[in-house]
């Protein structure tokens, strides 16, 4: 386990957005207990970590550095796991002075995977509260087993947290999380709280759970309604509303245009916001480039096959061209035009020519071919790029709370808060590895990491 310290090249969890009004950068550097931010210490060396410190000043009278050894810490993890670490975490997070002074408005939810080394025998997890197993890896390490972190951020503070099995689906996490958090928050708080989540939130079951709770989410691209709303938006260019940049400032900041709609999903009426971004996601841009290139290769192959053929008369060539057009009318990113051309070649007759033959045995052969001109359809490519850079938000927040659709977009783009928390949590100098074996201790250690993240986030706001 690494020390929780901030290195010089690190972005703190709340280090997002423009500088303050005084022009001061929002990023600050902190070092844990005066130690180097680059140093890592395994758990069994924790005694050496505290050896040169005033341990009594940190932890109380009678506490010595020798009291911190791996055996004691392992037993402490066992006790922590048995004491319901989920509830302990939230009592600390929601009971902190920073949290008590907050008026909860928007909670941003997201999950991430945390890959671990080791076999972790499934038999060890039969009675465990969660499982370390393979699942969808957001770390792009499907070869490793994992568990999941879930966070709920308010203003960059991880007020809500969860540790889940490695194969837990985001779609089935939001509902149980909501029911558990209901035990911690009063009805008055829930009545004013807006939950912001990604597209995995949008399922019939989750929408039923949030029938009387407010949320903002992103429509999955797999829904037909999502494509239908995009069609309606692009059909009327005059309805677009310029919003400008939302979460960033600077020349490279994306700007947005929106159109608001109301429609039904699963028998209920929701607010929908079609959002067009000036910046295309890098993955989608590469996918579009690949589609255009693949279509160009397919056209080149089809054209080459046809251009090798020749015909004895112009009528046959025109029939062949029309037949080719019927069979190849699916091109979406290129203009392909065909024309029939005449070719004249001179061939020599077989045998010796007669002396009286004015052509000396040469004869002119007239043939007809189909040739093509291929050009990129820049307008179609641009339309596809615009469509790929467009997404749809769904919300049941009433207009009495968020009158402007642009406010829904700003709330959703604030998801960068929880993403930055995950980025901080996964930094090697914060958590470098998990070297405990039992599932109980892994669970407890995961909540220790989360508590460290909470302290780290609070410190970054000072």
TrEMBL record:
<dbReference type="InterPro" id="IPR025457">
    <property type="entry name" value="DUF4277"/>
</dbReference>
<keyword id="KW-0812">Transmembrane</keyword>
<dbReference type="Pfam" id="PF14104">
    <property type="entry name" value="DUF4277"/>
</dbReference>
<keyword id="KW-0472">Membrane</keyword>
<protein>
    <submittedName>
        <fullName>Transposase</fullName>
    </submittedName>
</protein>
<dbReference type="InterPro" id="IPR047654">
    <property type="entry name" value="IS1634_transpos"/>
</dbReference>
<feature type="domain" description="DUF4277">
    <location>
        <begin position="39"/>
        <end position="94"/>
    </location>
</feature>
<feature type="region of interest" description="Disordered">
    <location>
        <begin position="1"/>
        <end position="34"/>
    </location>
</feature>
<feature type="transmembrane region" description="Helical">
    <location>
        <begin position="442"/>
        <end position="459"/>
    </location>
</feature>
<keyword id="KW-1133">Transmembrane helix</keyword>
């Amino acid at each position: 386990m690494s020390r929780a310290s901030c290195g010089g090249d690190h972005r703190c969890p709340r280090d997002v957005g423009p500088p303050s009004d005084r022009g001061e950068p929002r990023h600050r550097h902190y070092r844990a207990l005066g130690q180097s931010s680059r140093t890592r210490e395994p758990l069994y060396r924790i005694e050496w970590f505290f050896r040169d410190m005033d341990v009594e000043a940190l932890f109380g009278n009678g506490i010595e550095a020798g009291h911190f050894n791996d055996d004691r810490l392992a037993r402490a993890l066992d006790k922590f796991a048995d004491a319901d670490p989920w509830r302990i975490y939230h009592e600390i997070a929601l009971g902190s002075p920073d949290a008590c002074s907050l008026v909860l408005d928007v909670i941003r939810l997201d999950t991430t995977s945390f890959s671990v080394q080791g076999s972790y025998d499934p038999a060890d997890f039969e009675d465990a509260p969660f499982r370390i197993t393979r699942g969808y890896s957001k770390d792009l390490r499907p070869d490793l087993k994992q568990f999941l972190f879930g966070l709920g951020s308010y203003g960059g503070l991880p007020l809500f947290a969860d540790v889940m099995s490695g194969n837990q689906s985001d779609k089935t996490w939001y509902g149980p999380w909501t029911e558990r958090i209901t035990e911690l928050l009063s009805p008055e708080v829930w009545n004013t709280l807006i939950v912001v989540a990604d597209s995995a939130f949008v399922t019939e079951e989750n929408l039923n759970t949030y029938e009387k709770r407010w949320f903002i989410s992103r429509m999955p691209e797999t829904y037909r309604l999502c494509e239908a709303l995009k069609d309606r938006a692009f059909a009327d260019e005059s309805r677009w509303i310029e919003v400008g940049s939302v979460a960033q400032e600077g020349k490279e900041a994306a700007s947005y245009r929106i159109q608001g709609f109301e429609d039904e999903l699963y028998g209920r009426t929701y607010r929908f916001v079609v959002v067009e971004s000036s910046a295309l996601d890098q993955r989608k841009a590469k996918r579009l480039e690949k589609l255009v290139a693949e279509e160009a290769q397919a056209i080149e192959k089809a054209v080459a096959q046809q251009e090798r053929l020749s015909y004895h008369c112009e009528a046959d060539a025109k029939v062949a061209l029309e037949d080719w057009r019927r069979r190849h009318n699916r091109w979406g990113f290129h203009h392909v035009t065909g024309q029939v051309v005449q070719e004249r070649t001179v061939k020599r007759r077989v045998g010796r020519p007669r002396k009286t033959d004015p052509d000396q045995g040469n004869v002119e052969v007239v043939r007809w071919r189909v040739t093509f001109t291929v050009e990129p359809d820049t307008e179609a490519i641009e339309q596809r790029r615009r469509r790929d850079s467009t997404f749809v938000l769904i919300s049941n927040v009433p207009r009495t709370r968020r009158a402007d659709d642009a406010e829904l977009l700003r709330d959703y783009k604030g998801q960068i808060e929880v993403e930055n928390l995950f980025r901080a949590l996964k930094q090697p100098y914060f958590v470098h590895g998990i070297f405990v074996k039992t599932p109980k201790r892994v669970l407890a250690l995961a909540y220790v990491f989360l508590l460290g993240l909470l302290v780290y986030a609070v410190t970054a706001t000072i």
